[in-house]
């Protein structure tokens, strides 16, 4: 078990490694459970051609795969920068217990990563968002919901 | 080039396939570019033990990998249910141009998928959120930001 500062140093080291490789933005993250690092990641958006490959997502996915679970109760997320709304939402879906971060959202915006625009969009009522959206075939989708509710294979998460 | 309803039928069919396999929640999604389906996904949270493996994320990742890009300008996302905040944020990061959805967030909540709680958390000022958070070592992270800004390998996205 190390101090939070030691884990954060490691998250920042991963960010630097990603920068040295040219894999994407300057961000690194760790998942820690009971004092052990169970997931590591750095931003790989460019190398993986994957807009979802933020450091926190990579670290969360590695942790759940390694632990064989789809929730990370009792785990801490260390990230070298305040999570964007995608990563923060993923932390909620993963049931992360605490987040440590180093740089702030404003620091990221200052170098061109404008998470704030997404945050503002999400805060708007859905009909006021800029991304055009249209609803279709709701009843057909509800039939699949009903099939899931009845399914013996259902595993709520 | 098919009508939007035909693509949505396919997204709903993928949702049903995921339910039949027991892979996760009853959700399917497609990415369409110039009338061609370039990414498909259904929810695989349970099977992949991956809390980020929502249908839209799987479809976006397949589309960018297949097209060899990390943005999906001009693409449409078809999803059998209104995207959660994680998936909606990913759609913004991916530069998706339009979203079609079938079931609503309220429909998902009615069968136990409470995206609304995450949406409410994100809407709160960061200091008022329930997930505990703490800032550490900001200056060290900013050094890595500076290294990225100077890097010849930098590829803004």
Which shape of chain A, going by the Cα principal axes?
globular
Give the number of helices of chain A.
6
Largest β-sheet summary of chain A: 4 strands, mixed
Q: Biggest interface between protein chains, with counts per chain?
A: A-B, 88 and 88 residues
- Uncertain spans of chain A, ≥5 residues at pLDDT below 50? none
Descriptors for this entry?
homodimer; 157 residues; alpha+beta; 4-stranded mixed β-sheet; 6 helices; globular
Plain-language structure description:
Two copies of one chain form a homodimer. By secondary structure, chain A is of the alpha+beta class. Chain A has six helices and five strands; from the N terminus they run αββαβαβααβα. Chain A has helices spanning 4-21, 55-67, 85-93, 105-110, 115-123, 138-150, and strands spanning 28-33, 36-42, 75-81, 98-103, 133-135. A four-stranded mixed beta sheet of chain A has the order 2-1-3-4. In chain A, strand 1 and strand 2 form a beta hairpin. The two termini of chain A are 29 Å apart. The mean pLDDT of chain A is 95. The interface between A and B is large, with 88 and 88 residues.
List the helices and strands and how they pair.
The structure is a homodimer of 157-residue chains.
Chain A: H1 4-21, E1 28-33, E2 36-42, H2 55-67, E3 75-81, H3 85-93, E4 98-103, H4 105-110, H5 115-123, E5 133-135, H6 138-150
Parallel strand pairs in A: 3-4
Antiparallel strand pairs in A: 1-2, 1-3
């Amino acid at each position: 078990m190390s101090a939070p500062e030691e884990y954060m140093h490691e998250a920042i080291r991963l960010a630097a490694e990603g920068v040295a490789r040219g894999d994407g933005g300057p961000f690194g993250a760790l998942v820690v459970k009971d004092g052990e690092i169970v997931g590591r990641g750095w931003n790989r958006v460019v190398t993986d051609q994957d807009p979802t490959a933020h450091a926190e997502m990579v670290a969360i996915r590695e942790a759940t795969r390694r632990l064989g679970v789809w929730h990370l109760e009792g785990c801490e997320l260390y990230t070298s920068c305040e999570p964007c709304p995608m990563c923060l939402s993923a932390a909620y879906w993963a049931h992360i217990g605490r987040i440590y971060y180093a740089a702030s959202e404003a620091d990221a915006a200052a170098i061109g990563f404008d998470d704030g625009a997404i945050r503002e969009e999400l805060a708007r009522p859905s009909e006021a968002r800029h991304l055009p959206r249209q609803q279709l075939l709701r009843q057909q989708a509800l039939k699949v919901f009903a099939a899931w509710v009845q399914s013996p294979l259902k595993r709520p998460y």
